[in-house]
Specification:
Length: 142
């Protein structure tokens, strides 16, 4: 699977470790940055990631910041993006099953790295259920 990943300084360490984890599972990963824990503006990294995902260059995305909010708000400005903030495995599964989320947003300051890894695995291996959920997803874009 082709995965796009990016975030800000608060998510840098998780991002670095998640990239290694994903590669060990055989995924192709493109890192949109940031490249350190130095303070940055997350939209500078999230918009390019979302544009690439909208173009079909990647299957799914992972975005990470301190709360998960800023990166998710930015991502969800894109019409073809459905970014879901998750803090446990059940939410990661439901984001895919019911909302056809194509990006998981991780709040690095509020979940352990171990939970982040479990959520990512759940997100990547859970399919959209379609059916009654499809008509709702179809109503999301403005």
């Amino acid at each position: 699977m082709k995965i796009a990943i990016g975030g800000d300084h608060a998510g840098f360490l998780y991002k670095k470790d998640l990239i290694n984890y994903l590669k060990s599972k055989g995924h192709e990963v493109r890192d949109f940055g940031t490249d350190s824990e130095a303070s940055v503006d997350y939209p500078d990294y999230i918009h390019p990631l979302c544009i690439a995902l909208e173009k079909g260059e990647h299957d799914l995305g992972i975005i990470i910041c301190g709360s998960g909010n800023g990166v998710a708000i930015t991502a969800n400005k894109h019409q073809k993006i459905r970014a879901a903030i998750c803090w446990n495995e059940e939410l990661a599964a439901l984001a895919r099953q019911h909302n056809d989320a194509n990006i998981i947003s991780i709040p690095a300051r509020f979940v352990s790295y171990e939970m982040a890894e479990k959520m990512v695995e759940t997100f990547l291996t859970t399919d959209f259920e379609g059916g009654r959920h499809q008509k709702r997803v179809d109503k999301i874009p403005c």
